[in-house]
Amino acid sequence: ALLCFFLFLLPLSINAATFQIVNSCSFTVWAAWATTGPQAGGGNQLNSGQSWTININAGSTGGRIWARTGCSSDGRGCQTGDCGMLRCQGYGRAPNTLAEFSLNQNNNNDFFDISNVDGYNVGIDFSPTTGGCRGIRCAANIVGECPAQLRAPGGCNNPCTVFGTPQYCCTNGPCGPTDFSRFFKTRCPDAYSYPQDDRNSMVVFTCPGGTNYSVTSWPLK
């Protein structure tokens, strides 16, 4: 397997969170981020060993960081995580593993999680580096073991993308786990596996505002 580390460092200040994004992979990746409150985003091609620094406003919500893989040279078309442009202004297309965050929310807490609701393309370790909070990880051979119905070039799709039914998309009231969501949950217990995953399973984590984070992503065979 080709191993790489895709590192995000998140030092939080009063005015903005600064993300230093480093590509330690042996191949090119296309970093992407987006928030919904306010709507903002960006992206950049990172060759092996390159880094990229961005600032995101404190109080931003709906934040996602993800790695795009298998992209064209201009970043306008990718196998996984594609947003249709080099500098994303919205979320990417499944399959992609997501590091999600909202900054300085209730009681000045940050909320963060890892999600497989949009499928999986690379492993992620999302860990605070200050504040004494626990980190989370989703790193398993999900692509290699992906059920036949969910297989996609470069990744493993979520069942909602493939089948589009209320059972898998949770679009018609409450829904519970399925065999497909259990496939993800067994391999990544700290991550969301379907849209209404049980919050009692600690899929959302909190740290005090001002915490620093590292998010390390690497593809597995």
Write the layout of secondary structure elements.
Elements (H helix, E strand, L loop, with lengths): L5 E4 L6 E8 L5 E8 L2 E8 L4 E7 L5 E6 L29 E5 L6 E7 L7 E6 L7 E3 L3 H4 L5 E2 L2 E2 L2 H5 L2 H4 L9 H9 L3 E2 L12 E4 L4 E6 L3
Keywords: Cytoplasmic vesicle, Disulfide bond, Signal, Taste-modifying protein
Protein name: Pathogenesis-related protein 5
Family: Belongs to the thaumatin family.
Question: TL;DR of this structure?
Answer:
The chain is mainly beta.
What's the CATH H-level superfamily name?
Thaumatin
CATH architecture, by name, is Sandwich
- How large, in whole angstroms, is the Cα Rg? 16 Å
Classified by CATH, the class is Mainly Beta
Walk me through the structure.
The chain is mainly beta. The chain has a single domain (17-72, 80-218), classed as Sandwich (Thaumatin), CATH 2.60.110. Helix content is 10%, strand content 35%. It has 4 helices and 15 strands. Strands 3, 4, 6, 7, 8, 13 and 14 form a 7-stranded mixed beta sheet that branches. Strands 5-2-1-15-9-10 form a 6-stranded antiparallel beta sheet, with no helix packed on it. Strands 11-12 form a two-stranded antiparallel ribbon. The longest helix has 9 residues, at 179-187. The chain is globular, with a radius of gyration of 16 Å. The N and C termini lie close together (5 Å). The mean pLDDT is 85.
